[in-house]
Recover the amino acids of this structure.
């Protein structure tokens, strides 16, 4: 079933981490540098891949919950501040786009689609990653998790895109990798396709019953 209906879309919204780029190693590196600075035990890359995708505050919360069994608010704030300082300074050391992404974005620009990055990551490092990877020119906007008071799975970011860029829900498509993306799209009443290679908090993406799962976005161009 062709959920994409790409010829009918004006607006295509993309999640960042786990959808457009594999950023897990840089997040893992920055987290361990932060933990070391605070004299806390280190974590593994595999654990980080499970914890990311819900925004930086929850990433730090998950890390502390694992290390301490509970989350002390003062320590959480300390870790959050330290992590943002370290990560924002170098968000793109080993981060790379996934296979097929650049081809799909090229197609989008060539076919006059408005492409927007909609992420739970803070806006500054999200924009920096796209600049460092020379991908920023594809997008008319980058909406970080700190632009509004809520983030995915809340539909506020997606609703803003539809309204601000004067499109319609029928002409909008969300592309993501996690249950947050699926739920946000469902609540915004826009169609959503997910990639199979993303993070999704360590869970099988099929469990959240997405409309369509693809292994590579170029499959949609066939």
């Amino acid at each position: 079933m062709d959920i994409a209906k790409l010829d009918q879309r004006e607006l295509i919204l993309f999640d960042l981490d786990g959808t457009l780029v594999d950023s897990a190693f840089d997040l893992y590196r920055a987290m361990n540098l932060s933990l070391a600075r605070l004299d806390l035990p280190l974590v593994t890359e595999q654990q980080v891949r499970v914890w990311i995708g819900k925004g930086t505050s929850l990433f730090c919360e998950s890390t502390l919950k694992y290390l301490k069994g509970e989350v002390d608010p003062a320590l959480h704030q300390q870790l959050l501040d330290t992590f943002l300082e370290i990560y924002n300074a170098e968000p793109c050391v080993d981060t790379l786009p996934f296979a097929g992404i650049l081809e799909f974005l090229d197609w989008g620009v060539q076919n006059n689609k408005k492409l927007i990055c909609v992420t739970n990551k803070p806006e500054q490092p999200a924009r920096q990653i796209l600049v460092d990877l020379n991908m920023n020119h594809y997008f008319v906007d980058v909406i970080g998790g700190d632009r509004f008071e809520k983030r995915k799975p809340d539909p506020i970011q997606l609703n803003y895109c539809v309204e601000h860029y004067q499109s319609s829900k029928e002409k909008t498509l969300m592309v993501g990798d996690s249950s947050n993306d699926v739920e946000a799209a469902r609540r915004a009443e826009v169609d959503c396709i997910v990639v199979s290679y993303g993070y999704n908090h360590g869970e099988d993406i099929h469990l959240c019953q997405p409309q369509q799962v693809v292994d590579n976005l170029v499959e949609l161009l066939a």
The helical segments are 24-37, 45-51, 56-68, 73-89, 101-110, 123-132, 156-164, 179-188.
